[in-house]
């Protein structure tokens, strides 16, 4: 979960034009997606 937060904040810094949902979606796909099954992953797409 900490990796997700770090990636989300990095996204917001590096991509100032991104919305929060964009930053979260990218962070999720890079950090947590591999650990969640299909049901959980559809919540974030």
UniProtKB/TrEMBL annotation:
Alphabetical list of Gene3D superfamilies matching this protein: Glycolipid transfer protein (1.10.3520.10)
InterPro entries listed in its UniProt record: GLTP_sf, Glycolipid_transfer_prot_dom
GO cellular component, one term: cytoplasm
GO molecular function: lipid transfer activity
Domain Glycolipid transfer protein: 1-44
Name of the featured protein: Glycolipid transfer protein domain-containing protein
Lineage: Eukaryota, Viridiplantae, Streptophyta, Embryophyta, Tracheophyta
């Amino acid at each position: 979960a900490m990796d997700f937060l770090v990636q989300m904040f990095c996204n917001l810094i590096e991509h100032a034009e991104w919305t929060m949902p964009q930053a979260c979606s990218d962070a999720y796909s890079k950090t947590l997606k591999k650990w969640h099954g299909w049901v959980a992953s559809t919540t974030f797409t």
